[in-house]
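Postdoc handover notes: sequence design on the structure in folder B. Input tokens:
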């Protein structure tokens, strides 16, 4: 089983990203559980969403305490002392940031994908909603889901011109992510 924990702020699309990833994985024949956890339900408040998937039925319905991957939509959340808590050894990070790491931020982190998803979203959509771009980066870095499945899942939530703009975000996230590996 693979477990992914999304960290963002209200309005950045963390919950929607977790749902779209779930749809992508189901399309590829995986069993999936995905759900959010809200604190104060307001724009800008920290939000955590969870997605787990496996080849067999998932019985676990609790939040994810030991993720295989963290998707961090707001780079300011890197300062949280609990962000990397429970990260499995050989963990992966997908980060929205204009800056690449100069050092390994956590000993369990072995792979990171960094993409300036905010810039891409503003250029393509006209708003700071970087979630679809990060899904493209997730597909490229982890290989756990295919790009075409991610793009199809975006079509479940958007249509018309906004769909085309978000599909460009997914593709750019996939193609522009910078991959960092640590020993």
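Designed sequence:
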């Amino acid at each position: 089983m693979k477990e992914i924990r999304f960290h963002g702020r209200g309005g950045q699309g963390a919950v929607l990203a977790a749902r779209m990833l779930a749809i992508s994985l189901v399309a590829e024949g995986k069993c999936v559980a995905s759900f959010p956890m809200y604190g104060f339900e307001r724009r800008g408040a920290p939000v955590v969403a969870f997605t787990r998937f496996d080849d067999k039925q998932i019985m676990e319905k609790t939040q994810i305490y030991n993720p295989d991957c963290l998707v961090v939509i707001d780079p300011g959340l890197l300062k949280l002392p609990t962000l990397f808590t429970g990260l499995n050894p050989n963990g992966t990070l997908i980060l929205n940031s204009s800056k690449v790491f100069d050092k390994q931020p956590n000993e369990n982190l072995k792979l990171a994908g960094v993409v300036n998803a905010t810039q891409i979203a503003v250029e393509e959509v006209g708003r700071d909603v970087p979630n679809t771009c990060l899904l493209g980066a997730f597909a490229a870095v982890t290989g756990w889901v295919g790009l075409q499945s991610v793009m199809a899942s975006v079509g479940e939530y958007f249509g018309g011109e906004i769909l085309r703009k978000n599909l460009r975000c997914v593709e750019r996230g996939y193609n522009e992510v910078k991959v960092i590996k640590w020993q």
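Context for whoever picks this up: The first strand starts at residue 2 and ends at 9. Don't rerun without checking with the PI first.
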